[in-house]
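Consider a protein example.
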Amino acid sequence: MSRDAEGRSVVDVTLAESIAEYEKYSGWPELKESFMAGKVRAAYLLAPMVMDLVESGVKAKIVSLGHRSGAVIMVRTDSAVKTIRDLRGKRVAIPSRFAVDHLFVRRMLKEHGMTVRDVELVEMAPPDMPAALYARQVDAYATGEPFGAVAEVAGYARPLYMTRDKWPNYVCCVLTMHQDLIDRERPMVQQIVSHVMSAGAWLETAQANRNLAADIAAGPGVFNQRADVLKHVLSNPRDRVTYADLRLIRAEMDDLMEAAFEAGIIRQRIEYERYVDESFQRAARPVDIRVQR
């Protein structure tokens, strides 16, 4: 999955005697600051955030995707809203200006001849979004899963749009490494990327694998979510979020950068090679994924 109980993509990798250890962060600002300070050498970050960091002088590279699709725009089940056009003048919650969910809202507004000036965007932590919709504090919210499914499974919300339908090559969370880690520990970085890509393929092999992953990820030491909600995300529909193709593709990242630039998330466009290193995905070899509970 891509989000934890605080609504963030928070699993990051630190080095300890050349062994990868995992640490959970409760929010994007804390993770971003730790990454900038070098306290963590690798992390799953928002793709536009990485672009902004590199443009600001942080030497880092994206080495793999974390997932594809997996974002939704939710409205109440009793809402009369049928398209985003019906949200004119309404309150729409987004996780952060850096979030690709924010860009998803902008894309849907543009498709319907609208701009962000036609709605009221409010930044809100994803865990708070379902309750805010239930209490009618917002009219819709855009977020990464499982926080759309939380309200859907509870019965009071429905997806208005899914990225699987409207933005098939949607990219959000990306595995990012400090350049000095890449330079000093290249074999280890290669091993991590090979495992990430193989784990994605393993998830797509069978629904049983997805269910097992949901059971594990539901635990308090990982995402601290209900297993039935995670299983709903991974099966309704099955391609609501996908992991089989975690390749970095220049055209897709260029498209994302252009959207981020137009939205004012990044100050200027930067060269693809400055923030992406495709060499690890090209050298990746299949790894036998064995899961022990």
In short: The two ends are 17 Å apart (CA to CA). The first strand starts at residue 11 and ends at 16. The chain has two domains: 11-68+170-283, 70-166. The mean pLDDT is 90.
